[in-house]
Amino acid sequence: MLESYEDNAISDGPFSKYKKAQIDKSLIGGLSEKDLKIVLDAVGFDCAALLTVDKFAKGNFQHFVYQKYGLMIVKPTDLIEILKPFQALWL
Q1: Which has the higher per-residue pLDDT, 73 or 12?
Q2: C-alpha Rg value of the chain to the nearest Å
Q3: How many CB atoms lie within 10 A of CB 21?
Q4: What string of H, E and C letters represents the secondary structure of the chain?
Q5: Model confidence, pTM
């Protein structure tokens, strides 16, 4: 696995997004301390999605985080809606 990184260095994009998220007042102000840590970890690890049963914040928070950091925050009901078009593949 590490051999594949010999020629191409690992991108520092996730680290820069993580640093940006740490000082983002609109992100910090809208979340509890525990929720903020979860979101920051997901941004830092360059996750594409975060599945949760919690309501993180009101309004456009999920859309805001996706637009700014590329992280989808989805609830199980959201995930079911995303997967509906592909449900016939598992029959």
Answers
A1: 73
A2: 16
A3: 20
A4: CHHHHCCCCCCCHHHHHHHHHHCCHHHHHCCCHHHHHHHHHHHHCCCCEEECCCCCCCCCHHHHHHHHHCCEEECHHHHHHHHHHHHHHHC
A5: 0.73
Task: List 34's β-bridge partners, or say none.
Answer: none
Task: Kindly list the domain boundaries of the chain, sorted by start residue.
Answer: 11-90
Query: Above 60 in pLDDT, residue 4?
Result: no
Residues 71, 42: contact at Cβ < 8 Å?
yes
Phi, psi of 63 (to 5 degrees): -65, -40
For residue 40, how many other CB atoms are within 10 A of its CB? 19
The residue length of the chain stands at 91
